[in-house]
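Reviewers of the previous submission asked for a worked example of the structure-prediction workflow described in the proposal, so we include one complete record here. The input consisted solely of the amino acid sequence. No template or homolog information was supplied to the procedure at any stage.
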Amino acid sequence: MFPLCSDLRTDVLRLKDVAAESPVNRIVYLDGHATTPLADEAADAMAPYWTARAGNAQSPHARGQAVAAAIELAREEVARLIGAQPQEIVFTSGATEANNLAILGVAEAARRSGSGRNKVIASAIEHKSVLAALEELANRGFEVALAPVTTDGVVDLAALEALVDERTLLVSLMGANNEVGTIQPLAQAARLVHAKGAMIHSDLAQLAGKSPVDVAALDLDYASLSAHKLYGPMGVGALFVSGLADLKPRPLVFGGGQERGLRPGTLPAPLLVGFGAASAVATRDMAEVSQRQQVLATELLAGLAARQVRLHQNAIDAPRLPGSLSLRFPSVDADEVVGRLASTICLSTGSACSAGQITVSHVLKAMSMSDGQARSVIRVYIDRYTTLDDIHFAAGEIATAVMGVSGCHWVSDPVGCAHEVHTH
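From that input alone, the workflow returned the following structure tokens.
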């Protein structure tokens, strides 16, 4: 498993120009689950805070106070995106840190409070940063458990309810999966978790900015965000801590009093301003962009069908992120397909955070796929900047690569390569 074009952020930002200048060197980026291109609005908003408006928000002079005001405006935009209050947003270096702060920080706060609750549960398809945090809790003597998911990649609510008991402190359930795009039933999960007196955290890195989120309506206690997954800059994220949450996380690092002591350190003003600008754009354009992404996803599937590519679309019966596709090509090595496409189409076979690990996706395994089936899956995410022409080009390139790996040809082997679409 390996993501392609992980070091091509500059090229990603120049996609339209590259395509226009030279079709031979064209690169189409379809790996938006790994990262999204920086929005023009975010880049423009950030620019002066590197130079002309640079300053430390902790400084008492005019420049410092102007930076502090810009950061608070960004906090308001991030809060608005997810239906939170600005004071409930704690800025972090990304969703990985936010996940750790929520899980490890709440666990430590509970231990110190003497609550007696020492069980933490997550779904089996969580991001590695959540699963690794649970492993650390197990090493510290906490009880941990994983809730199974259906073959469509949705948490089994009945199984989750059976796991939650009077000893349960926290349940962590992602908003949307980073490999198959399935949207999880957060509202139902929150109800059953709270009914047992436990709290709920959600990793919203893939959901926020792509699909509507209202943390208050969902009744979440904690939620993690990542700027670069919603067309903001890398290196910044946030943790939502509900004002109604029973426990405030203990900090993981110590220093100054920034972010109410939960995340000390000088705030990176340019990154936060970009995060805020990207959040504002997402709030404004989400409905229109989502509709367009769905149209392009349908067009990509139609293009592959027209070229007689055999494929199974995973998780088709589950709610999914607009523009997200998980495609399984029977008896085809997905890594080889992605490798053949490396110079033209940016795709991946699994979570970008698992780069370099030659292991079967834990997400696909949790969905009851065999090793062979899991190794034939490619994930696609069509972002807000993808064009119809990009999709037409990608369909041809993907079809050629898949058929090249499988040994099929469009005309000479019509039976062996006949179009076949299955839902599971």
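Confidence is low (pLDDT under 50) at residues 1-22, 351-355, 410-424. We consider this example representative of the routine output the project will generate in years two and three.
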